[in-house]
Give the backbone structure.
Amino acid sequence: MKEALTLPSPYWPGTTTDPDLRYAAYMMATWGPHIEQWREQQAVLFTQLVEAVRPLTNALRRRMPPSAGQTGGWPWSTSPGTGSWAT
């Protein structure tokens, strides 16, 4: 603990930040007033993408073996027409 206390705090101004944090700060400073509209546009485009690939998704899921839904990590059934993904 004594050694840790001798190190500079990562929260002091001027400390090194990672590239993701710098990018997020830059984007908020640049696009801050427009973020809400931009996010709404993203949501619309993402919904359109999901609908466009839905036939492919459903076809691939029909080809899954029954054991794929028994992995424990999947919250849906692999049976077509059931589970949260079938809506």
Summary: The radius of gyration is 23 Å. The chain has a mean pLDDT of 80.
